Amino acid sequence: MSNQDSRIRNRQLRAYGVFAIAAILLVIIIIAIIGLFSGDAPADIQNSATPTPPAITATPTPENTPTSEPTPSEEATPTPSIIEKVVKTSQNGSVNLRAQASSDSQRVTTLKTGQILTVLSEENGWAKVRTQDNQEGYVSAEYLIDKVTGTVVNINSALNVRETASSTADKVGTLENGDTVTVLDTSNSDWTLVALSDGKIGYCSAQYIQIS
After folding, report:
1. Is 53 contained in some domain?
2. In this structure, are 154 and 107 located in the same domain?
3. Residue 201, class by beta-carbon neighbours within 10 Å (0-12 exposed, 13-18 middle, 19+ buried)?
4. Does the structure show a pLDDT above 90 at 143?
5. Mean pLDDT for the chain?
6. Chain segment 148-181, per-residue pLDDT in tens
7. Would the pTM count as exceeding 0.70?
8. Do 122 and 172 belong to one domain?
């Protein structure tokens, strides 16, 4: 009985061993299966979150570039107007042109009635002038009058210029239609005192002189 009991016990032990091994393998398989489904997911699945749409960058509104104001064009320096005056003393008189604005100053030259001068400045009764031959100096302003031009018109032949305001006075020259003269005096309604281009002074009939 003892040998038989021993054999039965051995069989039982082997059966238990097989059962234990099978149980252990089953546990391992179960653990493996559980690990497969509950473990770390593949990288491409685990990180498959909903993609974030790219940020939309607002296009900056261009700033208005200030329009530069046009540079004003440089204004031309106005040419100073030329002031011309005429010497007037007595009919055939003259006046001194001096180096300084003083009657005691050195005399530069003598100016005759009817002579045209360019006035450079005028102060304290004296005018700084330039003659037509470019001499400069000072003359008393009381001997200067504004330049007035007259033109001979409506004459059929020649207009006589006489020494005095009389048709019987000696002639000092003649004028034709279109000739111009420097007018010195119009106080006589019948006769005009004029200076000719050659410097001679005389009277001509006022009706033939058109003053401009």
Report:
1. no
2. no
3. buried
4. yes
5. 83
6. 999 999 998 899 999 999 999 999 999 999 999 9
7. no
8. no
| C-alpha span between 113 and 195 (Å, rounded) | 8
Q: What's the domain range around 179?
A: 148-211
* Residue 99 sits in the same domain as residue 154: no
Q: Determine how many CB atoms are found less than 10 A away from the CB of residue 202.
A: 27
Residue 65 belongs to some domain of the structure: no
Q: Do 116 and 155 fall within a single domain?
A: no
Which residue is listed with tokens 């007259």?
150
Q: What backbone phi and psi angles, to 5 degrees, belong to 185?
A: -160, 130
Give me the number of domains the chain comprises.
3
The answer to the question of residue 137 being in a domain is yes
Contacts for 209 with CB less than 8 Å, ≥ 6 apart: 150, 151, 152, 153, 181, 183, 192, 194
Distance separating the N- and C-terminal Cα atoms of the chain: 176
Higher-pLDDT residue of 66, 88: 88
How confident is the model at residue 9, as a pLDDT? 67
